[in-house]
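request received
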Amino acid sequence: MSRVKEFSIAREFSAYPGGRKRDDGPFNGARFRDDFLGPLLEGNDEVVLDLDGLAGLPSSFWEEVFGGLIRHHMLPVAAIGAKLRVRTSEPELQVYIPMAYKYARDAGAA
Amino acid sequence: MMANFSHIKRLDPASGLLLAAEIDRWRRAASRKPVPHDHLWDENVRNFFHDAGLFELLGIDPRTTRSQPTGAVTTKTLPFQTGTLHEGGTADRFRATLESLIGRSVGPRNRVYDAISEAMTNVAHHAYPSEIMLWPESPKNRWWLGGSWLPDERIATVQIYDHGVGIPRTLPKSRHWSEVLPIFGRIDRERTDAGMIEAAMDYGRTSTGQVGRGKGLAQMAEWITAAGNGALRILSGRGALTYLPGKRPIRVKLPVEFRGTLIEWKVQL
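response:
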């Protein structure tokens, strides 16, 4: 049986993410990718990131997470949307789903 | 040093934030407490700074208390905030406080959050590069945040200011400069500082991946784009750029160099 892990960024990381690098602020993209998302991807067959409850997702944070996964060889582009998915029930936050996949594709094409 | 405010009759929110930031910068660099002469200030100026929390920001006691204004109250001001990192909670609370002052939304929560957040992050990434010496000395990575509601004009404003070296001095040293340069040459043959800011924003809007400062500038404009009105104004170096939704940005060449970078959002409600 495949292991699927749902992870609420707002509840289990922060409702106020922002910043790209570790010294940008406490809830930066590099920290989320390496300390939270990386272990989740290693320990599960599929990870679903839930965006509900987030105040927003600044581009420097979100690009560092998804673009960074590709640049740091943590996940191939083809696995984005399959092994790692993003969901939200909040209409205002829907915009961040295609943005995540785009950041990964762009990093893969660079 | 003495700063005499007694000749100032009125302050707009951006000017008030710049003055407050400059005094705060001075007291941090000098490790001294400024002595206020607020009893000599015009009532408008005194009340503005009482509402904006100048004395709390500086850690000093005013000589006066906020007076009941003799004229109509034309501006409601939020307490200044300052920090050195991306502080998402501060950004979101600031929006919520502004909205409670006005009694309605100033835009989609996530757009406002992303705009202020990216401005904070840009300060940490670009404003105070270690390879460029600053004089007068500035507290590393510090930003100051202000906001207001102008009921007569029905305009909400938010400003974030840093005392760094400014966009026109850091952008040509960035690794994306070779990609910004052709855009800069195309949109502004005069090669002004305002044109450089516009080129960075344009590059951030159209390019992919890690595109440096431009992506943050482009996301700052998205609040205004989503609102469909108002303006985003960026002052840095000798340039002022005003972004208006659906229109060509307005570039202004400043007669004197503006120290640091001021980002100001204005939304009509």
